[in-house]
Amino acid sequence: MAKLALLLLFALPLLLSLTSLLPLPCNAFSVDRPTDRRLLVLVDDLAIRSSHSRFFSSLQARGYDLDLRHADDPGLALRRYGQYLYDGLILFSPSVQRFGGSLDLAAVLDFVDAGHDLILAADSSTSDLIREIATECGVDFDEASGLDPAAMVIDHTSYAVSETEGDHTLIASDDFIKSDVILGDKKIEAPVLFRGIGHSLNTANSLVLKVLPASPAAYSANPLMKLSSPPSLTGSAISLVSIVQARNNARILITGSLDMFSNRFLKSGVQKAGRSIKHKKSGNEQFVTEISKWVFHERGHLKAVNVRHHKVGETNEPSMYRINDDLEYSVEIYEWSGSSWEPYVADDVQVQFYMMSPYVLKTLATDHKGLYSTSFKVPDVYGVFQFKVEHQKLGYTSLSLSKQIPVRPFRHNEYERFITTAFPYYGASFSTMVAFFIFSIVYLYNK
Amino acid sequence: MFRKALILTVADAFSNPEMIKGWRGQNTEDGFCGNQLLGMAKSNTSDAKVLIRSLRSAYAATPISLKIIDLYVVYAITTAVIQVVYMGIVGSFPFNSFLSGVLSCVGTAVLAVCLRIQVNKENKEFKDLPPERAFADFVLCNLVLHLVIMNFLG
């Protein structure tokens, strides 16, 4: 007995130290709390820790647990024993040729395929590895900069005014995507500073979209060289910042400028060329904060609960409807605000009563407390139907609900009887019977 | 079956030799050659009159039992026609009722015509079949028909 107590005494500190090593499960991404918690930040120069400290500290202030590592750290791993160690990945390592540890292109793509989020920032020294990750996400960084490593986005009309004339690679852009869910309710007043490489969107990819397109006068070239041939990327085909929301609701942010997250750009004042207003502070801080909120699911994440349907005047959900029944359908939809589930308010949520094609398509009415409901008549067609809600809206996670429900025809005893219109037919049928009876008698006894 | 019945009715009329003689005599008297167009039309009307008259007189010779059957068939067809006209006016809504109403009349008429073929003495095809047996078949078929009609009436 004493030996056992002694053993426990030794084992207890060991056990405690082991549990402290394991990440706490309550911090993880979950359906109830969809915001990411643990982020892995990869840098190719540890100086970024101090040069981009404002961005990192704003993330930490919002409750994120940052793990900042050098990109070729040999101990890098996104998953261990089949469990992901992180909920989001920030790649601030444009020049890395190979990641350290078990991390590679496939591991990053698997991470996104598992529903996790990614921020990727490049600059003019972007390596093939980073380009490949971007290509897999539907974004092609300017190819020319591969041959000519110094190619950057140049814009002679919407550059940021500075003391020296400069080469107009520091772009001030304020042509943001018009979406409150992606960039927040508050309008970004000051232009955003950008210095880096441009990218184009893969036209075959319908999920990627420009958040910050370049102006029509922009082009991509080496600012130090004379242009000998027309630039491959010009005008609004160039995207400065793009986002992707994958079909599994994983969110990706891709930008060609690592500098736009830096303290220098966040603090700097800005005056756009051709305008008299000189902003004390650039729009970068608001822009990167708001868009990182979107990427890490602090906004625009929807959930649907309590899907209910029943006949008008009843409360129980039937296992089957009859043709021409009147029914009521309701669903509750909430949006995650970063800390709690708030009612989602929209006037374009629709329900389909679907069998191969929608027989009924109705817009749901909302009570502004999250409840959406409508009522309609089951069509005069029987078969196996589905209630479908397919809600896809810019910036919001896609909502896809379907619930199967059979619809049966009238039973034999449910048809209407003694229809007034049919009385002549009844009369005719009975009169032929009577006629048959009379005929038989007359025929047999006519001798 | 209908066709056969019609042929037999006409055959009844032709079995009267007097009628055929009269009809021939009329025709030869007028003659088709050397007459004016008006006279030709006149002769056609009178031909039709003669034909109808001779058919009527021939039909008068038909046995009374066959005449009862004919009356029964006429009644059934009239009822069916009335129902079709009614459906044309009010629409086809209780379509099953309409079908059973019309089909009961049509079925009755068909069965009655079949009975008529079988009990007609002139018809040599069924000379081995006793009329009692034919009537029993007719009754059985009618029972089945009306059972179906009742089920389908709605």
TrEMBL record, chain A:
Major localisation: endoplasmic reticulum
UniProt domain OST48 N-terminal: residue ranges: 38-295
Membrane topology of this protein: Single-pass type I membrane protein
Keywords, sorted A to Z: Endoplasmic reticulum, Membrane, Signal, Transmembrane, Transmembrane helix
InterPro entries (UniProt xref): DDOST_48_kDa_subunit, OST48_MD, OST48_N
Homology family: Belongs to the DDOST 48 kDa subunit family.
Protein task: Subunit of the oligosaccharyl transferase (OST) complex that catalyzes the initial transfer of a defined glycan (Glc(3)Man(9)GlcNAc(2) in eukaryotes) from the lipid carrier dolichol-pyrophosphate to an asparagine residue within an Asn-X-Ser/Thr consensus motif in nascent polypeptide chains, the first step in protein N-glycosylation. N-glycosylation occurs cotranslationally and the complex associates with the Sec61 complex at the channel-forming translocon complex that mediates protein translocation across the endoplasmic reticulum (ER).
Name of the protein: Dolichyl-diphosphooligosaccharide--protein glycosyltransferase 48 kDa subunit
Organism field: Musa balbisiana
UniProtKB/TrEMBL annotation, chain B:
Pathway: Protein modification; protein glycosylation
Membrane topology: Multi-pass membrane protein
Primary site of residence: endoplasmic reticulum
One GO process term, biological-process aspect: protein N-linked glycosylation
Any Gene Ontology CC annotation: oligosaccharyltransferase complex
Keywords: Apoptosis, Endoplasmic reticulum, Membrane, Transmembrane, Transmembrane helix
Location relative to the cell: Endoplasmic reticulum membrane
Transmembrane segments: 71-89, 95-115, 135-153
Alphabetical list of Pfam families matching this protein: DAD
InterPro entries: DAD/Ost2 (IPR003038)
Family affiliation: Belongs to the DAD/OST2 family.
Role, per record: Subunit of the oligosaccharyl transferase (OST) complex that catalyzes the initial transfer of a defined glycan (Glc(3)Man(9)GlcNAc(2) in eukaryotes) from the lipid carrier dolichol-pyrophosphate to an asparagine residue within an Asn-X-Ser/Thr consensus motif in nascent polypeptide chains, the first step in protein N-glycosylation. N-glycosylation occurs cotranslationally and the complex associates with the Sec61 complex at the channel-forming translocon complex that mediates protein translocation across the endoplasmic reticulum (ER). All subunits are required for a maximal enzyme activity.
Subunit: Component of the oligosaccharyltransferase (OST) complex.
The protein's name: Dolichyl-diphosphooligosaccharide--protein glycosyltransferase subunit DAD1
Organism: Musa balbisiana
